[in-house]
């Protein structure tokens, strides 16, 4: 039986939660994605889309027009705890794409990308430059751990603070994650806890994964994910998104030792977080180094790659030690073309690609011993459906029929048509079956 909110009792503050490895999940009916990730032969190319959560399906977008893939999606205002909302949201995405293309999609996404940094002791916060009128209400709700009340208000939910972060993060409509008090000085690292029990801080996320796995009914695999250390550090220093990441990069040059301390702290929490997702029911994991392109080759090799490699090694080691499934892992380092060969040797079964690299070149540089994922330009989904089909066919021919997972080169945008997303998925299945036919 699925674990419901009524079966879950949050641990008392400071009390570690016993490990829970749910059993009795529905049998997986479609393992094409998992087989492709492991390099096994498939009859067609599996496909999924990044940023499915709350991005383009009207039913997931809140009445104020905001949506986010960095928190559990509760934007359609049902009166449920976040974990239950996440399960309902996954079902909505699955139904939405199924209607669009008259068939099942490949995978569902556990939508909690930025839940990866350690929490700080309670400190006074500087008001956000553009504070939401609901922020005070939200903070009170969060302090009381009354997630039921938080989800009751879609506007408040869009500012849901991710419990494992060492500082407050709010979701600003039209802007994304925003930190009211970013890390400004090296001394600010002292505000972060050095040890974090993710089961205590993120129990509701793990509960949501378990509920979602049951909700999917075995129709598709469930992918868990996290931001990578450099990407999370850049948010923590910049206070939000940035075109240049100049403040975060300045830390790397001015404070290299402190930067490594922060990155190592993030690495350790991310490892436990990803292991916890598998224990809760995730069947694959993706690590997003979304801001890799802001680093040059030398900076990437010093401040990003070692932590990417360590996460893969440590996650797999802890999964084995805990008698948990050693699930396939995907690394997506956007715009890090200069490190493609290193990423292919970094311990992940799959390397995700953005749309600025030709499939043939990526395959030539990585060989036939790694699965590649990507890499259609997301904006191609604005094209007519016939053109989408042509672009998909060209992409599939470039990558080849095996050791390949189709995806976009980045995430879906909120104004994208579900019908065009469905056309993309259908084209992948149709053309890949043709490519896999015996000659």
TrEMBL record:
Task: Output the InterPro entries linked to this UniProt entry.
Answer: UROD/MetE-like_sf, Uroporphyrinogen_deCO2ase_HemE, Uroporphyrinogen_deCOase
Q: Example GO biological process term? A: heme B biosynthetic process
Which transformation does this protein catalyse, written as a reaction? uroporphyrinogen I + 4 H(+) = coproporphyrinogen I + 4 CO2; uroporphyrinogen III + 4 H(+) = coproporphyrinogen III + 4 CO2
Which cell locations does it reside in? Cytoplasm, Cytosol
Q: Which CDD domains match?
A: URO-D
Q: Name one GO molecular function term.
A: uroporphyrinogen decarboxylase activity
Q: Where is this region: Disordered?
A: 1-25
Query: Origin, by domain of life?
Result: Eukaryota
- Which pathway does it take part in? Porphyrin-containing compound metabolism; protoporphyrin-IX biosynthesis; coproporphyrinogen-III from 5-aminolevulinate: step 4/4
Name the protein family: Belongs to the uroporphyrinogen decarboxylase family.
What is the annotated role of this protein in its UniProt record? Catalyzes the sequential decarboxylation of the four acetate side chains of uroporphyrinogen to form coproporphyrinogen and participates in the fifth step in the heme biosynthetic pathway. Isomer I or isomer III of uroporphyrinogen may serve as substrate, but only coproporphyrinogen III can ultimately be converted to heme. In vitro also decarboxylates pentacarboxylate porphyrinogen I.
Q: What is this protein called?
A: Uroporphyrinogen decarboxylase
- Supply the source organism for this entry: Sphenodon punctatus
